[in-house]
Amino acid sequence: MSCNSVIYTVASTPVSVLAGGTVPLGAAVRKYGCGIDLNGNALQLLAPGYYDIAVNLTMEPVAAGAITATVYVDGVEYPGAVGTETAAAAANAVQIVIPTLIRNNCNSMRTVTVVLSAAATVTNAAVVAVKV
Questions:
Q1: Of 18, 47, 106, 120, whose CB neighbour count within 10 A is largest?
Q2: Residue among 54, 60, 69 at smallest CA distance from 126
Q3: What number of other Cβ atoms are within 10 A of residue 42's Cβ?
Q4: What is the pLDDT of residues 86-109, one digit of tens each?
């Protein structure tokens, strides 16, 4: 199965995420093709090929210090797909942007999630995934 696909998801309602918790990806605002789907808090890469994915998060950590967002593929940290910012004080907004390229092999499906290292209120989460 080969097809051109794109999805743009947005979660703009503030939501509390615990340390080690998965960021809700919201709803699909734009979707085209048959190679990508949104399933709860995860993207599903359905067609073989490469996927260009960009994660953009705005959040307010519950404590001062570093907070990290990591892209997981099939429950495993994806190499290099991590971003860290430091909040000067609790509830100071920080933004993390993570671009990555993920390969999906033939006859398989990959599940993509975003996990936080520390508790935060995520005020905006936007994800764009394009099958290239």
A1: 120
A2: 54
A3: 18
A4: 999 999 999 999 999 999 998 889
